[in-house]
Model the fold of this input.
Amino acid sequence: MEEIKIFCAATIANISCGFDVLGLALDNVGDEMIVRKVPQKGVTITKIIGQNLPLETHKNVAGVAALALLSKVDTDFGFEIEIYKNIKPGSGIGSSAASSAGAVYGINELLGRPFSNHDLIEFAMQGERLASGVAHADNVAPALLGGFTLVRSTAPLDVLKIHTPNELYATVIHPQIEVKTSDAREILRSSVPLKTAIKQWGNIGGLISGLYTEDYDLIGRSLEDYIVEPIRSILIPAFNSVKTESIKSGALGAGISGSGPSIFALSEGSKNASKVAIAMKKVYDKVGIAYDVHISKINTEGIKKL
Amino acid sequence: MEEIKIFCAATIANISCGFDVLGLALDNVGDEMIVRKVPQKGVTITKIIGQNLPLETHKNVAGVAALALLSKVDTDFGFEIEIYKNIKPGSGIGSSAASSAGAVYGINELLGRPFSNHDLIEFAMQGERLASGVAHADNVAPALLGGFTLVRSTAPLDVLKIHTPNELYATVIHPQIEVKTSDAREILRSSVPLKTAIKQWGNIGGLISGLYTEDYDLIGRSLEDYIVEPIRSILIPAFNSVKTESIKSGALGAGISGSGPSIFALSEGSKNASKVAIAMKKVYDKVGIAYDVHISKINTEGIKKL
Done:
């Protein structure tokens, strides 16, 4: 194989109670990427369509992730990457993760898969380090593994793929405002009341249990975040209305996607997910904020060959 | 049915990362109880064998739990309870929970099961309130439901039964020292660093996932407690040695049972659980502290009719 064309899934990180540990992949929202073997060693980003992002390998998250992988293998050839960005950077649905994960996935395929998708996570995390200063796995893990993922531990890295119920759908609305990940991190408190932390880990346990048992009601009851959402949601206009209206219109639960500003809701079945999209749009139409909306089944594969 | 004889399981609460939310039931460690219909209304504790505990209904956890149940049903008769205590109060394996849960289970059976075992949890919690000042469900939930249980939320109460792998065994050592639950609560810090809380809920997610997927290695990796164990373990002599030697001899993980002083370890298979018991005993033999040791399969039924 000399060339591969792939779909790089958008992802939702955190997922209410799962701050810094949970993530999921979307099925029909994502970038496309072509990775090509070339005689010249190293990595060249030849084209980025859809967004104004740096082409220099060391300044591009895909380039940095690709170099991290190539530092672990000897090749007498190199790679060219073309990126077709559909995910807007700063939207909170894993734009940098899609590029980082896509680059290492594509190269690994062209090399004959010396690494497992699990192995690739650490390389893709180097792209995340460039993007946000923190080499986190919350988005690259679901992008590479698909479904729901849990980052049980970061040192040593221990990432698990969690069972995903078949009828689980996500609705995501992206209000066209900017929330910097670094700002969203800075406003968090460095300590939390033990009682609140206990509520949070009760919900994590409930959510994971609900995913394995396909208990949609339990999934909904567990989608509560007592720690991060109350603080970060102040950065997102009309967050509470979007959340309340989503749940009123049938969502199991709703929360901040990644560090925002996108808001996600989970629903049982595509019909509910569509109703939720209508409810979300109505809120931002009233407030007068432009938005994108996505409705997607949870993507249990992750990156896909096209 | 005029009389019922039951086995009331001992339980392990907290389970490392699962502070205040997780619990499990033991299979061959527990009290026995006889509950009998009598013409006279109300609840009478007629006999307590094995421990010196109050017979007055309002001062006895079984009595208080029984009255909580009877406040919700009209009967023109009453109940007598005989308690054969094998679980020592203050051991950290749910002595009060066994009595509270047993009383409400027995009465419910004699009434023709007007309540589900889930319903009974709230009544049994009233016994826990008498015992420790806090109406917690960590022990009464596994005593009544069996297996692993998760208290996702206390208000409203939401308790889940979690899948238990078939080859999971517990070894428990009870050093004959006293640790009061109230003291064990008082030394806890009221707030925790967010970073530490995230590690803890990553592990809860890992443990629940490991239970559903029967991944013993993952269960072991997840049995870490960064919040409570480092503080409470100072109240338990040679805790670190017992834990280290348990893991060296084959345990998946180990931690404090309830608020101590008992220490539990989980193992795959009865052989490993027995090896762990030997290792635990050796530590306390050296230190010169008397102990009881229990080896038990996880009890997936909870209270059993005898």
The first strand of chain B starts at residue 3 and ends at 13. The domain at 168-297 of chain B is CATH 3.30.70.890 (Alpha-Beta Plaits). DSSP finds ten helices and twelve strands in chain B. The two ends of chain B are 14 Å apart (CA to CA).
